[in-house]
């Protein structure tokens, strides 16, 4: 039987280095690559990313919205991207940030995590702000299918603190309550668990300010915000402190902007990985 997601992720981070490249086919990037903003351009763009990077980086993270905006033809491209990236040896996190009442969450979980679904992936980003327990159907199906879940914790957008830093009735922040839920689900894992957290590389001192112990959660820590949103590898040590070993830095636009040349994309990913390694150390 396939190993649980956290074990597969650690093993690939050790082998290929801790880097996730996001496949975010913005209209402006399609244009910069000389492609039309339609499903054919999308397919060319996304499959070039797969060709360049799926055999090289540990994780690829296609962002569903950029595929959905091309309708059913775009979703068909997403299916192909996820399938072929996995076949080429990368782990795939589908970034769809799903979140709904539990009964609907079951259907989202089946769409992405049931390994017989056309959209079957290794891990899914989810939004816990309907309450952590609303995610339970996805957490359960992920565990049964040896998949991962990445729960939004402290996101990289500037307005995130309005909700995530807010103090709840028990006196702790909303984000700390989400991290507590993740920690409970990963309890007993010796290293990385299957339930990750999304913590932006742009958030400065929020983790320490809110008294959050990320290392104790055993969560893989997906850290977007490297590059286009202004964070560099240098921010990682400051944001994550003792948890840096569990960080999976993520960059989309900065790497994608190097295309459409396959070798230029590979070099850009290598440069980002080298910069992160200088901070995170060798795995
Ligand atoms: O879940 C994410 O990946 C995510 C969380 C977050 O807090 N901030 C964030 O930017 N992202 C995603 O990361 C990608 C942005 O990457 P850049 O182009 O490198 O800025 C987009 O797909 C975002 O949806």
Automatic annotation (TrEMBL):
The reply to whether ATP-binding figures as a keyword in the UniProt entry is no
Q: Which ranges carry the Orotidine 5'-phosphate decarboxylase domain?
A: 18-268
Describe which pathway this protein belongs to, using the record's wording.
Pyrimidine metabolism; UMP biosynthesis via de novo pathway; UMP from orotate: step 2/2
Molecular functions per Gene Ontology: orotidine-5'-phosphate decarboxylase activity
Please name the SMART domains in this protein's record: OMPdecase (SM00934)
Q: What is its EC number?
A: 4.1.1.23
Q: Where is the active site?
A: 97
Q: What is this protein called?
A: Orotidine 5'-phosphate decarboxylase
Query: Keywords on this record?
Result: Decarboxylase, Lyase, Pyrimidine biosynthesis
Its recorded reaction(s) are: orotidine 5'-phosphate + H(+) = UMP + CO2
Q: What InterPro entries does its record include?
A: Aldolase_TIM (IPR013785), OMPdecase_AS (IPR018089), OMPdecase_type-2 (IPR011995), OMPdeCOase_dom (IPR001754), RibuloseP-bd_barrel (IPR011060)
- Which family is this protein grouped under? Belongs to the OMP decarboxylase family. Type 2 subfamily.
PANTHER family recorded = OROTIDINE 5'-PHOSPHATE DECARBOXYLASE
């Amino acid at each position: 039987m396939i190993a649980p997601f956290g074990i597969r992720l650690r093993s690939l981070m050790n082998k290929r280095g801790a880097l996730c490249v996001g496949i975010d086919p913005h209209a402006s990037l399609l244009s910069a690559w000389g492609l039309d903003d339609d499903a054919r351009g999308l397919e060319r763009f996304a499959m070039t990313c797969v060709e360049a990077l799926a055999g090289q980086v540990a994780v690829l993270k296609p962002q569903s919205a950029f595929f959905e905006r091309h309708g059913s033809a775009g979703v068909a491209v997403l299916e192909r991207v996820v399938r072929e990236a996995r076949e080429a040896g990368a782990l795939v996190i589908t970034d769809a940030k799903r979140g709904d009442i539990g009964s609907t969450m079951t259907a989202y979980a089946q769409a992405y995590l049931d390994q017989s679904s056309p959209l079957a992936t290794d891990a899914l980003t989810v939004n816990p702000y309907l309450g952590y327990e609303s995610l339970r159907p996805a957490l359960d199906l992920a565990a049964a299918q040896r998949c991962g879940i990445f729960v939004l914790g402290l996101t990289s957008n500037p307005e995130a603190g309005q909700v995530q830093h807010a103090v709840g009735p028990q006196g702790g922040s909303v984000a700390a309550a989400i991290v507590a839920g993740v920690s409970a689900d990963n309890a007993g894992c010796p290293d990385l668990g299957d339930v990750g957290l999304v913590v932006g590389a742009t958030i400065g001192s929020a983790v320490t300010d809110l008294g959050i112990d990320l290392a104790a959660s055993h969560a893989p820590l997906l850290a977007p915000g490297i590059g286009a949103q202004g964070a560099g590898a240098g921010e990682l040590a400051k944001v994550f402190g003792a948890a840096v070993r569990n960080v999976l830095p993520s960059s989309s636009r900065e790497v994608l902007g190097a295309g459409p040349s396959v070798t230029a994309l590979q070099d850009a990913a290598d440069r980002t990985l080298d910069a992160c390694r200088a901070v995170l150390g060798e795995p």
